[in-house]
Amino acid sequence: MEHLISGICPTAGGQSATLLGGVLSTIIGLYCSLSNPNTWPKDVGPNIIQNGAMDYDFIVVGSGSAGSVVANRLSEVSQWKILLIEAGGIPSPDSQIPSMLFNAQRTEMDWGYETEENPRFCQSIKGKRCYWPRGKTLGGSSAINAMIYVRGNKADYDEWEQLGNPGWNYESVLKYFKKSENYNNGRIHNDAELKRYHGEDGLLNVESFFPDDKMFKGIIKSAWEFVGQTLSHDINGKSQMGIYEVEGTVKDGQRFSTARSHLQPIKTRKNIDVLYNAQVSKVIINEDTKQVLGVKVKIAGAKEITINAKKEVILSAGSINSPQLLMLSGVGPKVNLEKVGIKVLKDSPVGENLQDHVFVPIYFKIKKYILPELKTEMLMKLSTEYFLTNKGPLGGIRGTDLIGFIDTKNENGKIPDIQFHHFHFLLKDNLLMPAILHGIGYSDEAVQKMKQLNENAELMVFFPTLLKPKSKGRILLKNKDPFEKPLIYPNYFDDDEDVATLLRGIKFIHKLENTPHLKNAEIEMADLGLEDCARFTFKSDDYWRCIIRHISTTVYHPVGTAKMGPKTDKKAVVDPRLKVYGIKGLRVIDASIMPNIVRGNTNAPTIMIGEKGADMIKEDWGQGTQVHEEL
Q1: How far is CA 281 from the centre of its chain?
Q2: Residue 17: its pLDDT value, please?
Q3: Annotated catalytic sites, by residue?
Q4: What are φ and ψ of residue 296, in 5° steps?
Q5: Could you read off the pLDDT of 508-532 as tens digits, one per residue?
Q6: C-alpha torsion sign, points 273, 274, 279, 283
Q7: What is the per-residue pLDDT across 209-228, written as a single tens digit (0 to 9) for each?
Q8: Number of alpha helices (DSSP H) and beta strands (DSSP E) in the chain
Q9: If we measure between CA atoms, which residue out of 352, 351, 211, 262 comes closest to residue 82?
Q10: Strand order of the sheet with strand 181-183?
Q11: Rg (CA), the chain
């Protein structure tokens, strides 16, 4: 095996060597085909560099969960010319493999943000700064995320409307969830309730991941059911409470980002151009009329250029980049903009209202249920199976097959405040565990303690996740350099109630720990042994508060930094039609417009925002929501 890996073969030649070489070439070819450049839209950059930029009707900044959707839908209007600008390139082949979801972090596909230091959180992460990966590639964060398709709770959207945003209630947004979705589940054909909540004709494929650990899944399911939480097969249906089988934006064992769903099908459409490896540095706004004129953009290897927009610029760059761009363009909090030397065109609460889901990992050692170590030979076998069939464990997401929602204050509640993810690490796990620890960036002490637990036992990890944080943060410019990362202050646990809710979630895990199903598998909650927490009694509230302070971190769901709201809302940046207050021809369409974070993963809601936002643009420009003839 070592010879094959290193490329050195002691007895080259012969028919068998030729056959083996052919097999390896086939596997390498299949790997590369996971992200074949020819399957993506052509990069218009070389043409712009050579001939200069043309004018466009609409410029969409960011090709992520919302941006790819917006660009696709606007290009359905044949007389419009659309430019989609992406700061990164095409996704890597690795990123298309579900089990490799953490491997894209800290690569060129990741913006690699870090929060500012705060003693209340991330104390056992290097530099004491939480690491915030964000997608910098075609598909944005949908190309590097965990692919889990969860819409949140019905109450989330009804709350949005109650805050003064007409048309954003649950029934109104449901049609946009359904519009984007191709629910690839055979049960829908004979199930009226599934049809009520799911779409069958959308571009975004949603289906189950390949199960890779049925025994682990069975243990978790049995424990949850013992404490009265029932298993459901539709997390986005009638009720959100309980435990659910995960479905995701995957297809046939491969990632299905919004770039795959909404850009690949239109790669030859003539009225849309895609510009790769190009970072927008500023939205150009007429200082007198406050009318948007276009954008300034730096294409890799070329000078900064100006591209004109005849109708609108749409920021779909995400909850960090969109507010940063607004502030760089003179739209933002006056005090911060003047401090860094930017002329204020519109004093606006841009960057405020930052919300995120935060989780804390709780470790269990599994004594009885032991699977083999995942050694190189086994990994090669699994890789070969995957590349030849798109099936097997590499098509799953390693132990997150089930997720749960509970109300920690009311066992019979219908609106959750804690979500549970679960992971399973094999004995001496050399695939998933190192990727997660590297991605999060835990300190040397924390990594050593976690690896020690894994040396002689498999590990089960529960991740209670705070769904409705009361604490809110902000994003500010560090300076006026558009290529400098902004300052991120998530302010986790500013409100003590957030810690109290997580503590109640941990106590629910205590309840699970005492079920016969976990006891039969000889599963035991583990003391991580962090030096700073050793002074507290294991499992006490003070112990868990210490653990929360040290190893809790983001679940990668920042939202709210360009808040949607009515004119009377002093924290609102955009109106209910996603137009930026005080500026003409500028909208924000991405997760940053959420007035309040949803109770669940944020990718599906962001895709919905893209669908609804595109329809609003069509309506406002007299196109209704019709689809025009293909060019």
Answers
A1: 24
A2: 47
A3: 557
A4: -100, 135
A5: 999 998 898 888 888 899 999 999 9
A6: positive
A7: 887 667 777 888 888 888 88
A8: 18, 27
A9: 262
A10: 181-183, 204-208, 247-248
A11: 24
